[in-house]
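@channel anyone free to eyeball this complex?
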Amino acid sequence: MNRKLLSQKPPVLSIALISGAALAYEILLMRLLSIIHWHHFAYMIISVALLGYGASGTFLALSRDRLKGRFSSAFIINAVLFGLTSVICYLLAQSLPFNALEILWDPQQPLWLLCIYLLLFIPFFCAANCICLSFSEFPRQVHRVYCFDLLGAGMGAMAAIAALFLLMPMTALSAVAMLGLLTALVAMIELKSGNLRHRIALLMIIALVAASTHGLEMKLSQFKGLSQALQVQGAAEVDTRSSPLGLLTTVESLSVPFRHAPGLSLNAPGAPPEQLAVFTDGDGMSMITANRGSAEALDYLDYVTSALPYHTLAPSLKGRAPDVLVLGAGGGSDVLQALHLGAARVDAVEVNAQFIRLVRQIFGEFSGFLYDDPRVQVHISEARGFVSSSPRQWDLIQIALLDSFGAAAAGLHALSENYLYTVEAFKEYLGKLRPGGILATTRWIKLPPRDGLKMIATAAMALEQSGINTPGDHLVLIRGWNTSTLLVRNQSFTAGELEQVRQFCRERWFDLAYYPGINEKETNQYNQQQKPWFYQGSKSLLSERREAFFRDYKFDIRPATDDQPYFFHFLKWRSLAEILSLRGQGGLPLLEQGYLILVATLAQAVLASLVLVLLPLWMGGRSRQQGQDGLGRVFAYFLAIGFAFMLVEIAFIQKFILFLSHPLYAVAVVLSAFLVCAGLGSAVSGKWSAKFTIYPVVAGIGVLAVLYVYLLPPLFQQLISLPDMAKIGISAALIAPLAFLMGMPFPLGLSQLARLSPSRVPWAWGINGCASVMGAVLATLLAIHAGFMVVVLFAVLLYFLAAATARKATA
Amino acid sequence: MVIAMYGCTNRLLQHVRFLAAVVFLMTSQLSLADEFEAARQQLVREIHADVLSTSAYIGRKSFNESVMSAIGQVPRHRFVPPGMVSAAYQNRPLPIGHGQTISQPYIVALMTDLLELEAQDKVLEIGTGSGYQAAVLSGLVAEVKTLEIIEALGQQARQRLASLGYDNVEVRIGDGYYGWIDDANEGEAEAEAFDAIIVTAAASHIPPPLVRQLKPGGILVIPVGSRFQVQQLTLIEKSPTGDVTTRQILPVRFVPLTGRH
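replying in thread with the prediction:
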C-alpha cells in the first residue's frame, strides 16, 4: 500500500458528499418511479438496484490488486460516473416499454424489469465504490470513513426531502447528478489529485450536464389514471405541483366531464356537476367539484352509500346539525357532502398542504371557496395523529374513500403500513364521538369481500376492547354496486335509526348487508351477488364463530393492529395455488400483487446477494487467501449487523410515524437522526477499536431497543398533543442513544478485520450492503406476519449473535 | 449484343425472382392464415374448457354456441398492434396504445354471452377500443352502434371494421355517458332504443341515461376493475315492466370459504 496515502487522511468531505448524493438519489428514484409506474414496483426496483452496494464490495474484492496505488483516480472516476449515470440510467430506464400491469401476462415483462434493475444498479454501484475504496485504502481510519459515510447519508436524506419541496422531481434529479460531479471536484481538491486541466474539464462536464438535463420530462405509464384522462379530447393539465408527499396534477376536461361519483345510485336524480380531477403521482383521482351555490346540482351527494350516516344521525340529534370530522379531505368531496347534508361544522383533515392550497387558492372560485366556508375548519395533519391529539368531539367521523379502485383491486396497498384502519385507531375514533355519535367508513366492493369484512371485524374488536359486549348492536353495513359503507355507533342503534337505514336503502336501491336484527330475506335485493356474502360474513364475524371464520376464509381478514398495520394485506399462502390456476378464467384480481412483490423482492435480493457474496470467494481462489478460517464468522458478523441495523431502523420509523403524525417528518427526522447519531457513534468507537469491546455495545442496544418497544407507545400517548417542534426534538433525543450505539458494531468489526485480514475488507462491506437490502425487505415481511415488536426483538437477537461470533474471532 | 443479351436474361431473371417471391408470399400468407385459424380454434377450445370448470359459478355449462362461433371467426390478430400479432390468440388482454387494451377473449366471450343476444337485436357498445368486441357482436345481431371517446382509436377501429366487412357496425367518436344520440331525433337520446348495452371500460358509476336507453327486458353489462384485470361484472337487467335490478358476477369459480359456515 502506498506509504504516502497511509499517512494521508481519507477524503471525508467527498465521502460524505457521495454518500449523501446516493441516499438523495434513492429517495428521488422512489418518487420518480412511483410517479411513472406504481409505488410497489418502485420499491422492488430500488431494493434490487441498491444491491449495487453489495456488488461494489465484490468488485473491489476481485480487483483489489489492480486498483492498488490508484485510489485517488478510482475515487474521482467513480464519483464522475455516479453523477453521469444517475441521470442517464434513469432516462434509459424510463424509456423501456416496461408495463407493470402486464407482469403476470407477458413473459417479456420480467426481462424489461431486469433491464431496469441493471440500469439503476449502476449509479449505486459507482457511489458505493467510492466508500468501499476508502475503507480499503484507510484501514486504520475505518471509523472515520464510516462516520462521514453515515453523516453524509443523514444530510442527504434531509436535503432530498427539502429539495423535493422546492424542485420538480426531474430538476431534483439533475441536482443529484451535479452533486455527484461536484463530489469529484471536491475529491480532486481533498486528494490533491489532478491538474488544472482536469479540473477545468470537470467543470465543463458539470456545465454540460446542467445544460442538457434542463427541461427533461417524466414518461408516465400510459395505463396510469392521469395518462388515461389526458387521452380524452379537450382534457388538459391545468396545474402541477410537487412535494415529497406526491406530485399533484390537476386536469380539466372540457368536452367530456369527469362525472366522478363512486357508487352513485342508479336511482340518482342527476350526474355530478363540473369537476376538476387531481391525480396524486399520476393516479388515485380526487375531485374538486364546482360549487356555484346550487343545492340541486349537489343532490347526487345524497345518493351515494357514504350519505347514510347523515340520515341515521337525524333522529338522535333532534334537529341539531351535526359536527363532522372528515379524515382525508383531499379535493373536498366529503366536505361538500357534509355541508350539503346539513353539517353545522366540518373539521377537514388533509396531510398534503398542497391539496388544501389547490382547493382554497388556485381553484378557490371553482370550489366555491369551500375551504374558506365559515363552517369548515381545515387542518393540515395526518388523520390518525389529528384524532389522537385533538381535544374535540364529533357527532360523525367520516373516513373518506381515499384510494383509487384500481389500486385497491390489485392489492397494491398490501405492503403499505396504514394506521387509519387498525383496532387501536377505531378505539380512538370511538372515544372522540359524542354520545350517539357515528364512525362511518366507505370502501370499494371487492368480490369475494375482503376489506368490507375486515372493517367489520376491526370495528367489532374495537367495540369489545372498549367494553361493549354486544358489538352487533352498534353496527350497520350497507352496500351499493361498487361501494360499501359501515357505520359504528358508540351506543346501540335505536329502532328509529334502523328505520332510517331501511328507508335510505330502499329509496336508493342499496342493499342491507347487516344491522341488528336483520333477516336474510332483506339482503341481496337490488344488487344481487351470487350469495349474500356480506351478510353471511358479517353474521359469522359477530358471532362466536369469528375465529373459525378467520381461519376458514380464503383471505386474511383478521383486523390490523398498530403493531401489524397492514389492513390491505389479504393474501393467504394456502389460497395462492388455487388463485394462480384460475388465471385464464379471470382469476387474477383475486391476487394481491403488493405482497407477492415483497416476497419476489426478497427472493431476488437473496439470490443476487448469494452470487455477490460467494463470487469473490470462488474467483479469488483458496491460494490467495491466507487461511480460510474465520470466514464463516466474518460472514455471520457482517450479515447479522447489516440485518439488525435495518430491522431496528425500519421498526422505529414506523413507531415514530404514529407519534409525529406525519409520515414525511417521521422518515426525515428518524432516518437523519439515526444516520447522523450512528455516524457519531462510529467516530467515538474509533478510540475503542484497539480493545474491541462489542458486548457492552450490543447489551446497550438490546436494553434500549426492548425498553423502547414497551415504553414508547404509552409515552407517545402522553406526549401526542405537544406541538410539532417539541415532538421532533423528543424523537431525535430518543433515537440518539440507540443510534449512537448502533453506529459502532460495523466499524469495530471492520477495523478488527482490517488488522487481521485486510484483503477481506471489501468483502465485508459487500456482505453488509447486501444484508441491508435484504433486511429492509425482511423487516416489512416480518412485520406483516408477526408485528414490529417481533422485528425489534429479532434484531436484538441478531446483534447478540454478531457479538458471539466476534468474541470467538478475537479469541 | 452480349450486353443486350445479358440485359435480357437479367430482366428475365428478375421476373422469375419476382414471380417466385409472389408465389412464396401467397403460400406463406396462406400458411400464416392457416396458423391463425388453428390458433383461433385452440383459443376457442381453451375458453370452452374454462367455461366448463367455471360453469356452476357463472350459472351456465357453456357459452352460447353462436358466441363461441363468433369468437372462432373474428380475426383477433387484425385488431392488435403489429408487434402483438404473435400473442393475438393467447387468452390474455393486450395493450393497443393510448392506454387502452383489447380484453381477454374469455372475458369478451363471457360478457357477450351474458347479454343473451338474439339475431334481430340492436346493441350499443360504449368504448370501441380496437373494435374487436364490436366485430364479435356484429355476427350475432342485426345492428351494432359503438362509441369511442379517444379519437385516434375510434377512427382506426372504424377503418378496420369497414375493411374487414363488418357492415352492420357504426362507429362514432364521442362521450358515452348519454348513450347514442340520434341525429334524426334533434340530438336527443332515444329512450329504450337498445336490446343490450355493453360498456367495455370500468366507470365510477353506471350512467343512469344509459339505463334509460335500454329496452324493457334488455341487459346492460359493465366490467369493474382495471385495464388488465376485470374484478367483477355488473349486469343491469330491465324487466319487461321496467324495473331495474343489478347482478354482480365474479367471472371466476372461487368459493371464498372452506369448512362449514
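from a first look: Chain A has four domains: 1-220, 224-261+263-395, 401-568, 625-811.
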